[in-house]
Specification:
The chain has 305 residues and is mainly beta. The chain is 12% helix and 38% strand. The protein has 3 domains: 104 residues, OB fold (Dihydrolipoamide Acetyltransferase, E2P) (Beta Barrel); 73 residues, OB fold (Dihydrolipoamide Acetyltransferase, E2P), CATH 2.40.50; 72 residues, Nucleic acid-binding proteins (OB fold (Dihydrolipoamide Acetyltransferase, E2P)). The two termini are 27 Å apart.
Length: 305
C-alpha cells in the first residue's frame, strides 16, 4: 500500500471507479482501501459530509483526524477540509433520516494506516514527497501522507534567507522534503539540502553574464541578491532598492574558495518575478551527510542526518 498527500488520489481512474458504487465501496471496506472524495459541508457538530457518486457519506467528528479525540488536533483541521478532497476508509453503511443509504467513513483510520505503515518507518535522511498546506511566519506546514501534517522550519527551507515561507512556496505546491528527525512525537523536515551545494548552483552561472535575481537582504556593506534558492551574491549598495525587489545583475566575479559571487545591479524592477518550479539536485533515496561548502572554503556548512 502506498500513501500520498491528500488530494493526489482523487482524480485517478482507480479512485473514481472505487467510489462509483456501493458494491465497490463494500470491497474497499473489506480491504481497508484508502479512497478520496470532496468534503462539501462541515456541520455545526464538525462532522464532514462527503458526496460520493453513488450515495451520501459522512465522516463523524471523532473519525475526522488523528488527535481530534484528545485535543492534540484542533477542529480547524476539519473545517479547513471543506471543498477539498479528503482521504478515508469505509467503516460501514447505514441510512440517513430520510431512509437513504449513507456511507460512514473514517479519515482517522486512513491516517492511522499511513502512520503505522509509512510515517513511523521513515528514517533520518529519507527524501519523501509532500504538499504545502499552509504557511506561517515560522515555517511551512506540509502534508506528508493522508493529511498528516509536518513542518519545514523557515531556516531550513533554503540557504538563501527569506522573510516568509511564501517567498519560496505556495499553498498546494508539491515539494520534495528530507526527514530531519523526530521531536516530541512529531516528524521534522528539512528542504535546503535538496537544492544543491554552492558549487552545483554556481556552475549554472558564468562571469560576465547578466542574470535576474531577487533582493533578500540590504546591509550597510552591500545588497544580497538571490540567484537561486541556495545561492546569493553580494552587490554594492544602491539607493532606492528594497527587499523582495527583482533585479538584473552583472556577474563581476565568482570566487569558489570564498564561496562569494560579486555582482553589480544593472536595473531594478518593482514587479516581482514569477515563481519558477523548484530545481532539486537530489530527488529520491536517503542521505546521511550533506556538505554545502566548497572544498577549500574556510566557512563550512553541512548537515548530518
Amino acid at each position: 500500500m502506498r500513501f500520498y498527500p491528500e488530494g493526489k488520489l482523487f482524480e485517478t481512474s482507480e479512485n473514481l471507479e472505487m467510489i462509483s458504487s456501493q458494491a465497490q465501496l463494500e470491497y474497499c471496506r473489506r480491504n481497508s482501501t484508502i479512497l478520496e472524495a470532496v468534503a462539501y459541508i462541515c456541520d455545526k457538530e464538525h462532522n464532514l459530509h462527503v458526496k460520493l457518486p453513488c450515495m451520501n457519506a459522512i465522516i463523524p467528528r471523532s473519525e475526522g483526524a488523528l488527535g481530534i479525540d484528545n485535543g492534540t488536533t484542533r477542529d480547524i483541521a476539519l473545517i479547513s477540509r471543506v471543498n477539498k478532497p479528503v482521504c478515508f476508509t469505509v467503516s460501514h453503511f447505514t441510512t440517513d433520516t430520510n431512509g437513504n443509504p449513507l456511507a460512514v467513513l473514517s479519515r482517522k483510520n486512513a491516517q492511522q494506516l499511513c502512520m503505522n505503515n509509512y510515517v513511523s518507518k521513515l528514517e533520518n535522511g529519507r527524501i519523501i514527497n509532500a504538499r504545502v498546506t499552509h504557511l506561517e511566519q515560522f515555517g511551512a506546514f506540509v502534508d506528508i501522507g493522508c493529511g498528516i501534517p509536518s513542518l519545514i522550519p523557515i531556516d531550513v527551507i533554503s540557504i538563501s534567507r527569506i522573510g516568509h515561507p511564501s517567498d519560496r512556496f505556495i499553498v498546494g505546491q508539491d515539494v520534495k522534503v528530507i526527514v530531519k528527525g523526530w521531536n516530541e512525537g512529531k516528524l521534522w523536515l528539512s528542504h535546503k539540502e535538496l537544492l544543491g551545494t554552492w558549487s552545483e548552483n554556481a556552475s549554472q552561472f558564468s562571469m560576465g553574464e547578466t542574470v535576474t535575481g531577487i533582493i533578500r537582504s540590504i546591509e550597510d556593506y552591500g545588497i544580497f541578491v538571490e540567484l537561486t534558492p541556495n545561492l546569493a551574491g553580494l552587490a554594492e549598495v544602491r539607493p532606492n532598492t528594497k527587499i523582495g525587489q527583482s533585479v538584473s545583475v552583472y556577474i563581476k566575479s565568482i570566487i569558489p574558495e570564498k564561496m562569494k559571487i560579486k555582482l553589480i545591479i544593472v536595473e531594478t524592477f518593482d514587479k516581482t518575478l514569477e515563481k519558477v518550479p523548484i530545481k532539486y539536485f537530489i530527488e529520491s533515496g536517503q542521505i546521511t551527510n550533506w556538505v554545502y561548502s566548497t572544498e577549500n572554503s574556510i566557512k563550512q556548512i553541512s548537515t548530518e542526518f
